């Protein structure tokens, strides 16, 4: 379900995506409005779910999480109890940055951040000890070419 946004809403969202730590005064100046209408619009977008949360982006490599693996998972299990256990295992692991259920030959793809290959193996061994997985392929990202959290508005 999409929410109707006008041009000012989109400008506000673009500013928040660019730098969520800006003051209301700074955002208002950037979008050509005043502080109170900007605050009201941000509040309404939070209430409607357009703005889910505000957070800080950290540099993974600066924190020692130098290895990024994309993990392709095929399963022969599709029952609800298996899916529940699998999803629980993913949610309990902070190494899993993203998880997607896919159409096609691969059932799931995970983005996993760890310090190194040995740490990935620890993650992998823990995952397969909790849930039965038919096939796992891990792809090490050699270089991050583009990464953004900014949605096209």
Automatic annotation (TrEMBL):
<dbReference type="GO" id="GO:0043565">
    <property type="term" value="F:sequence-specific DNA binding"/>
</dbReference>
<dbReference type="InterPro" id="IPR019888">
    <property type="entry name" value="Tscrpt_reg_AsnC-like"/>
</dbReference>
<dbReference type="InterPro" id="IPR036390">
    <property type="entry name" value="WH_DNA-bd_sf"/>
</dbReference>
<dbReference type="GO" id="GO:0005829">
    <property type="term" value="C:cytosol"/>
</dbReference>
<dbReference type="InterPro" id="IPR036388">
    <property type="entry name" value="WH-like_DNA-bd_sf"/>
</dbReference>
<protein>
    <submittedName>
        <fullName>Transcriptional regulator, AsnC family</fullName>
    </submittedName>
</protein>
<dbReference type="InterPro" id="IPR019887">
    <property type="entry name" value="Tscrpt_reg_AsnC/Lrp_C"/>
</dbReference>
<keyword id="KW-0238">DNA-binding</keyword>
<dbReference type="InterPro" id="IPR019885">
    <property type="entry name" value="Tscrpt_reg_HTH_AsnC-type_CS"/>
</dbReference>
<dbReference type="Pfam" id="PF13412">
    <property type="entry name" value="HTH_24"/>
</dbReference>
<feature type="domain" description="HTH asnC-type">
    <location>
        <begin position="5"/>
        <end position="66"/>
    </location>
</feature>
<keyword id="KW-0805">Transcription regulation</keyword>
<dbReference type="InterPro" id="IPR000485">
    <property type="entry name" value="AsnC-type_HTH_dom"/>
</dbReference>
<dbReference type="InterPro" id="IPR011008">
    <property type="entry name" value="Dimeric_a/b-barrel"/>
</dbReference>
<dbReference type="Pfam" id="PF01037">
    <property type="entry name" value="AsnC_trans_reg"/>
</dbReference>
<dbReference type="GO" id="GO:0043200">
    <property type="term" value="P:response to amino acid"/>
</dbReference>
<dbReference type="GO" id="GO:0006355">
    <property type="term" value="P:regulation of DNA-templated transcription"/>
</dbReference>
<keyword id="KW-0804">Transcription</keyword>
<dbReference type="InterPro" id="IPR011991">
    <property type="entry name" value="ArsR-like_HTH"/>
</dbReference>
